[in-house]
């Protein structure tokens, strides 16, 4: 275990002098100290927050490999979640268009004897109204 990691462990356990020294080293540009200061903020302040993000980015920018990996993983995770969310929205739009097309097609096939307003209205709901209620 290295010197900076010992400072981190001391800071997490409540040693104020360890925290101050860790913070000083991070401010002086030590990438390892920046990484551990970010970890400290995540551990002691209830998860990832602006201080965590700031110091983790500084550590990555200064070449600390673990910080780069963590940031890359979080960006990848956000991209996957965003893509999945967009996919669900796209599926609802497609489903809505299919309901509308089905309702109109059935109306035409029956020669207008039966008008399938329900299918058309439900399709319109899926496309336009549902996104408003799911915010």
Mean pLDDT: 82
Count of discrete domains:
2
Rg calculated over all Cα atoms: 27 Å
Question: Helix coverage percent of residues?
Answer: over 70%
Shape annotation: rod-shaped
**Contiguous runs where pLDDT drops below 50 for at least 5 residues:** none
The SSE string, one letter per element, is: HHHHHH
Helical run tally: 6
Give the termini distance in whole angstroms.
47 Å
Instruction: Give the percentage of residues in beta strands.
Output: under 5%
SS-based structural class?
mainly alpha
Tally of DSSP β-strands: 0
Keywords:
single chain; 135 residues; mainly alpha; 6 helices; 81% helix; rod-shaped
Written overview of the protein:
- By secondary structure, the chain is mainly alpha-helical.
- The protein folds into two domains: 3-63; 84-133.
- It contains six helices and no strands.
- Helix 2 (16-27) packs across helix 3 (31-44) and helix 4 packs across helix 5.
- The chain starts with a helix and ends with a helix.
- 21% of the residues are buried.
- The mean pLDDT is 82.
């Amino acid at each position: 275990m290295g010197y900076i990691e010992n400072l981190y462990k001391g800071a997490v356990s409540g040693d104020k002098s360890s925290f101050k020294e860790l913070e000083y080293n991070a401010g002086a540009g030590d990438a390892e100290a920046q990484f551990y200061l970010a970890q400290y903020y995540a551990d002691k302040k209830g998860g990832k927050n602006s201080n965590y993000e700031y110091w983790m980015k500084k550590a990555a920018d200064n070449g600390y490999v673990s910080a780069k990996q963590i940031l890359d993983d979080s960006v990848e995770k956000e991209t996957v979640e965003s893509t999945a969310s967009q996919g669900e929205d796209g599926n609802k739009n497609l489903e809505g268009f299919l309901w509308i097309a089905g309702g109109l097609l059935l109306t035409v096939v029956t020669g207008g004897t039966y008008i399938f307003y329900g299918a058309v209205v439900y399709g319109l709901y899926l496309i336009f109204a549902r996104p408003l209620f799911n915010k």
